[in-house]
Write a structure and sequence with these properties.
Strand content: under 5%
Length: about 80
């Protein structure tokens, strides 16, 4: 099993120039590969969390709309 060290990969001078200097624009200037930059533990985990959040928000939105529609129809009678 291979487990990447996020700290080590994000502090490589060969990839980031001066990795200890805070420079957010650096991420807009260069596109990093999955081996060079993996926020929140990795791209795959982020994608699955994003899908779960999308499903949860969709469920909440559909439920809220259904409740509001039922209350609106009840008030029209």
């Amino acid at each position: 099993m291979l487990i990447p060290c996020i700290y080590t990969s994000h502090n490589r001078a060969a990839t980031y120039g001066d990795p200890l200097r805070f420079r957010p624009a650096h991420f807009m200037e260069q596109k990093f590969s999955a081996a060079e930059y993996f926020p929140f533990g990795g791209e795959t985990a982020m994608a699955s969390a994003s899908l779960a959040l999308r499903d949860e928000v969709g469920f909440w939105l559909r439920s809220s709309v259904a409740i509001a529609l039922a209350q609106w129809q009840k008030g029209r009678r």
